[in-house]
């Protein structure tokens, strides 16, 4: 496969404002022979499964609305949705190997009412009923409630579940970012990323890293209100988002290189999405292009799961990577649900959604070189 970088895309114009149009054009040109999204091989053998749930944002509050007051939020009922999801996974005849919690486990309002620790304890007690391991990612609402140091020493740090790759120390994260990888089944590797590695949230304001991230944010966002994307050419540069340090991206590249060499299939998890076709542009990671460039230079990545958007999203990118933004529990009505179970096969993954999470079939891409962009 050609080693494509962000620079290649800049030089060919594929990182311009018409990114969506041009990537769609690439996709139609080079992926016409991909199997139909709905194609199911009857001979496929079920290997294992895993669960996904996003944006629980529990708080002991009456129902409210999002910041634009366009969508209702069910702060108390989100805990009942979580209970329902756990009961479902525990009842499965072949239980999932693990559950991926995609961040924003409690709402930022808890900090305002000095209820952060109490609410987190309540939600974690519900998760303890789950019969399989849960892997936690960190979102903006974690940092509204807690500092990074607090989270590192909390039950939301599930790095103890990581796998070590013998004789490959470069695949061990050594920075201050919260990221790790693990193998739930032979030849499948899951990678949790820290999409607030670059952020002004949860960081000591006197630290050099805070100053560095604030400078980066203000260079792209001149608004007095840094949570406002108004007038921005890159609307993802708002305070409630974050990004990936170069150190973390280098580490990701090393892990993906190992997975390529060993013919592994890779699932990547992050609170923030990185693909514009699958997300509202204001919800993307600051330097999503850099993350995509790393992923697109490898053949092993099957899908990228994220939360944050609340209303979900999906797109298959030109390199055959499936980007799934899972619908948020917090904006799910009491008579519905919002979680999914992914069933893994030798040739595909099948997402079985509950409630407003959409069913999807994610075929693995064919092993062939990707043509150079000219």
UniProtKB/TrEMBL annotation:
Its EC number is 3.6.1.13, 3.6.1.16, 3.6.1.53. CDD domains: MPP_Nbla03831. Residues 50-310 form the Calcineurin-like phosphoesterase domain. Its cofactor is Mg(2+). One of its GO terms (molecular function) is CDP-glycerol diphosphatase activity. Hydrolyzes ADP-ribose, IDP-ribose, CDP-glycerol, CDP-choline and CDP-ethanolamine, but not other non-reducing ADP-sugars or CDP-glucose. May be involved in immune cell signaling as suggested by the second-messenger role of ADP-ribose, which activates TRPM2 as a mediator of oxidative/nitrosative stress. Monomer. This is Manganese-dependent ADP-ribose/CDP-alcohol diphosphatase. It comes from Myotis brandtii.
